[in-house]
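Thread: Newbie trying to understand structure tokens

Hi all, I'm a second-year student working on a class project, and my supervisor (Dr. K.) asked me to get a predicted structure for one chain before our next meeting. I've only ever worked with sequences, so writing a 3D structure as a token string is new to me. If someone could post the tokens and maybe explain what I'm looking at, I'd be very grateful. Here's the chain:
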Amino acid sequence: MKLSISGYLRSLRFRIFLIVFLSSAIPALILTKVALIIYEKKQTESDISAVISQAQTLNNQIATTGFMENPDLDYLTAEFTAIGNANGGRIMVINSSLGIVYDTYGVDAGRQILWSDAVRAVNGETVSYFDRKNQCIIVTVPIPSFTRIDNSKSADRNQVVTPDGSAILKSDANGKFSGALMIIRSELYIANNLSFMRDVALEILFILFFVSVLLAIFISDRVVSPVKKTTEGIVKAREDPATESMPELSYTEIRQLIHEFNEYHRKMKEIDASRSEFVSNVSHELKTPLASMKVLADSINSMGDGAPIEIYRDFMKDITHEIDRENSVINDLLSLVRLDRAGVSMNIAPVIMNDMLEHLLKMLKPLAEKSEVDMVLESFRPVTVEADETKLNLALMNLVENGIKYNHSGGFVHVSLNADHRYCYIKVEDSGIGIPADSIDHIFERFYRVDKSHSREIGGTGLGLAITWNVIMLHHGEIKVSSIQGSGTEFDVRLPLKYIEEGTK
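---
Reply by user tm_fold:
Sure, no problem. This is what the structure looks like when written as tokens:
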């Protein structure tokens, strides 16, 4: 069966393919993005640290040389220019009044700078900032303020000597700063590196995606292949019911699925075999009385007017017996159909089980006497059950009637009744021919007969116990059977005293 595009998108194969592909592609994309972000962050942090260290060195030179008052020191301006060119950026010296004392670009010297970072630096705070748009870092470091002191004073760790050794300077005790040094460094090389890394990452990701597609196709085919084989096996079994069971191979879930299908297939073959046998049995049961009645009717018609009236009566009695036999088969079929119907109605009412069982045994007494079987009813206490009396009477009658039919001459059928605060217990025990062990699990299946030849001799269609089981289940009860072949059978029925509607807690 070919799948359409929408059918393929809803298929298990596509979903497995998608899961495998995305499980490799998404982490790769995330890792690549995270790696690039970490590289950029770590590199800018390293550069900022280097620039701050460099700025602090320059600040000491600015503070000790008096550059703030005399910005024309050639060796210092040359150093600023060299550092600015090396960084691919710019250096500005700012005084405490936010005036630009020196600018390596030479365009803003003498102007005021009104920028928050410069204000914070003049007040003693080292500020760094990465401008991603312009790909540069801006570091602003405060320049300490020094005052000249007398050479005769004792040394202090806050003292420094001017580069020419002509004076000793000491940092301002009030923590004031003479200005700030701003260094702007280009970070274009990071952008270039990131661009190169992205190009390499894209090539690697393309290869990875290609491999992921192949891997996803391979894995999806491997996973779906057992499902496809199972589907083919089911189709083959559907087209040819005689097909043998499928081998239980592959994954645990698939093996379980195949096992359940094999059980279902086996059950369906058994049902088909039972149906075929049922049709044969019912055809025989329906055809035999009709054939007998036709023979009897033809005999009556051929006797003429001079035949004795007693012969007519005997023939009519035989015809009545055959009609009753036909009616019994039809009633069993109708009962099973009614019980199988969805939403079967239950006429629930209080039923005195003691009276119902006494009446049931009384109705079957002629059959028991004819078969020379003794029937005994043992009631331990009065029991009232909420039940559908007609259906329950039919179910229990099948159990007792089977105990009589499948019994020996001189045997017995013992029926006992008991109850507790929740359940009613009915036991039907006989001394009959028993049930083979391999048939115990099948006796409640419709159309099933334990001994086909014997069953045909005594009548019946194999529906009695199926009807009984359905009735007990409709009452939310339970029925169990135990038997020893040749020694009798025992049926144990448990019914709730109060009937509970479906869906009621």
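A couple of things are worth pointing out once you decode it. The chain is about 55% helix and 20% strand. Confidence is low (pLDDT under 50) at residues 157-171. Feel free to ask follow-ups in this thread.
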